[in-house]
Amino acid sequence: MQYPRLLVHRTKKHKMPTYPHNTKCSELGCKEPRSKINSFCLKHGGRDNLPARDTDSIYQTPAWRSIRQRQLSMQPLCQACLSRGKVEQAQHVDHVFAWKHIGKHAFLNNIFQSLCQPDHSHKTALEKQGVYTHYTADGERAYTKNDYAYVVALNNV
Fold first, then answer.
1. CA distance 99 to 106
2. What is the pLDDT of residues 133-148, one digit of tens each?
3. CB contact at 8 A, 82 and 65
4. How far, in Å, CA of 74 to CA of 37, rounded?
């Protein structure tokens, strides 16, 4: 069986895009190679790696690993999805009250909930507006920063 011949335009060569052509620093007159993150060399403010946030290291502590493992063992499904009657696996252990808004003491002294990626992102966006959402079997409960001490104390009884 013979296949029909494909028409090929031989007048123009079409190339796929490759690594950026601008391999040199964007600073006027500089001929140094650009960095990996932006278009400047290291001398002119280029960066070859993204800096870790100061608070990221706290998520590597044994205490957090223990809390995370315990929470995902107790509740492996997304609590937000369950409150809507949907079943999804949780990937994140979330602080109901954003500890960065409350203080470092709230990192371990908090209410934790298991969430999937989309619900964790949605909840994080709400936190920027000052709304802290707790997903329960009874539905969603919205709190403010002022509710932290009372709600956490109630939860620890």
1. 5
2. 999 988 999 999 999 9
3. no
4. 40
Q: Which amino acid is at 94?
A: D
117-150 burial by CB neighbour count: b if 16+ within 10 A, else e?
eebbeebeeebeeeebbbbeeeeeeebeeebbee
Q: How does pLDDT run across 122-134, given as a tens digit for each residue? A: 999 999 899 999 9
Domain positions in the chain are 75-155
3-class SS string, 103-125: CHHHCCCCCEEEECHHHHHHHHH
Using CB atoms within 10 Å of the CB of residue 10, give its burial: 0 to 12 exposed, 13 to 18 middle, 19+ buried: exposed
Report d(CA 101, CA 124) in Å as an integer.
12
pTM of the model: 0.66
